[in-house]
Design a protein that fits this description.
This protein has a seven-stranded mixed sheet with strand order 1-3-4-2-5-6-7, with helices on both faces. The radius of gyration is 16 Å and the shape is globular. The longest helix has 17 residues. With about 200 residues, it is of the alpha/beta class. About 30% of the residues lie in helices and about 20% in strands. It has one domain: Rossmann fold (3-Layer(aba) Sandwich).
């Protein structure tokens, strides 16, 4: 896909601030420090559109990016960082779940997982929300460049069994570009998909 224009349309900490639901949206979700911002920047050919921080758990808002004035990519706050106070973690959970409840034009979720890590309880919670709200999702296994090619394939098979999804997980590296074309193909298919969920 050729990226002509990208702009941050909104940064929201409350559901009341979410923009209107007129355009199809694909959301990006994953635990803190999973490489979500690097993935989004790589995908959109931007260096710092999504803020990359060395401090996990820093992002506490939902960011809406308008792409080619025709669809949105939505950066959900990372979850599960242990040093974040429990009240803040509850606030994040509420914000993410309210997004799933409200967004009638959500056509897919890029579920980002570190290829080196096992699924956490919060990963499972997110998966449950996506199933509950009938949202199509596709797993992406980041930080693949930190493993050998053979180890990548082993971890891909292991995580695929854990996830249990019918869609094959994409092995991805923001550093090398591995998996970028495959991910764009799924994002493009998602934003072109006829709406099956109720409009908000």
């Amino acid at each position: 896909m050729k990226i002509l224009t990208v702009e941050r349309e909104a940064r929201c900490r409350r559901r009341e601030d979410f923009p209107g639901c007129g355009l199809p949206e694909v959301a990006f979700a994953g635990r803190s420090n999973v490489g979500k911002s690097s993935l989004i920047n790589s995908l959109l050919h931007r260096r710092s559109l999504a803020a990359v921080s060395s401090t996990p758990g820093k992002t506490r808002s939902i960011d809406f990016f308008l792409v080619n004035k025709s669809f949105r990519l939505v950066d959900l706050p990372g979850y599960g960082y242990a040093r974040v106070p429990e009240p803040v973690q509850r606030e994040w959970k509420g914000l993410i779940e309210s997004y799933f409840e409200d967004r009638g034009r959500l056509t897919g979720v890029v579920w980002i997982l570190d290829i080196r890590r096992e699924l956490s309880d919060l990963d499972r919670l997110l998966q449950g929300w996506m199933v509950r709200y009938g949202v199509a999702f596709f797993p992406v296994l980041t930080k693949a460049d930190k493993l050998t090619h053979s180890r990548q394939r082993v971890r891909q098979r292991e995580l695929q069994r854990e996830i249990g999804a019918s869609v094959e997980a994409i092995v991805f590296s923001a550093k090398t570009g591995e998996g970028k074309a495959a991910l764009w193909s799924r994002v493009q298919a998602a934003v072109s998909r006829p709406l099956r969920r109720r409009e908000s």
